[in-house]
Design brief:
alpha/beta, 174 residues, 6 helices, cytoplasm, two-stranded parallel sheet, Spore Coat Polysaccharide Biosynthesis Protein SpsA, Chain A, GTP binding
Length: 174
């Protein structure tokens, strides 16, 4: 995208603030995953955040850093680049959660593989993620595919659309 996707405005406010509001009914606390360069952009002293703690350029970094912060809770992970996400999909995710599995997620927007960045990661997957990282695997999708995950069909697959480049953003806004 060429800029911090969490600061892009889709719903009248930066996406990370919109998602915080959207997630509040589902989470006891909403935490932002930030890299060291983004820490200075967190200006609200009440906003909780976890800083990437691993030397890996992958969303796995934020997930692992969250488990480092608290390994005994489930983490509801939502990517900041899904501007169409609504409570419809979050309700379905929470309703379909299976704590006996390592994670609950949806099939991605192509309907082929688990969507790792809209998922509930259970505490049992923390050590698995750490082990796979030590083995050089940095794809959370691959890890979900290798393990016993609950994979659901999204009620509206359009909500899983990732906006990762300026062209996709322009299409979304038109």
């Amino acid at each position: 995208m060429g800029q911090d996707k969490s600061l892009l405005v889709y719903h009248g406010k930066p996406q990370r603030e919109h998602l915080t509001d959207l997630l509040r009914p589902y989470c006891a606390e909403v935490w932002w995953s930030v890299n060291p360069d983004q820490v200075a952009t967190v200006t609200d002293p009440a906003q909780r955040y976890v800083v990437d703690a691993f030397a890996v350029n992958s969303p796995l970094n934020g997930i692992l850093s969250a488990f480092r912060q608290n390994p005994s809770v489930a983490w509801l992970v939502v990517a900041c680049d899904m501007p169409r996400l609504t409570s419809l999909t979050l309700d379905a995710l929470v309703a379909g959660r299976n704590p006996a599995k390592v994670a609950t997620t949806f099939y991605d927007s192509d309907g082929q593989a688990p969507e790792p960045l809209l998922a509930i990661y259970e505490p049992a997957i923390g050590p698995v993620l750490q082990q796979r990282l030590a083995e050089g695997v940095i794809s959370p999708r691959k890890i979900l595919m290798e393990n016993d995950s609950q994979v659901l069909t999204a009620p509206d697959v359009r909500e899983l659309l990732n906006v990762n480049d300026p062209d996709a953003r322009a299409r979304w806004q038109s």
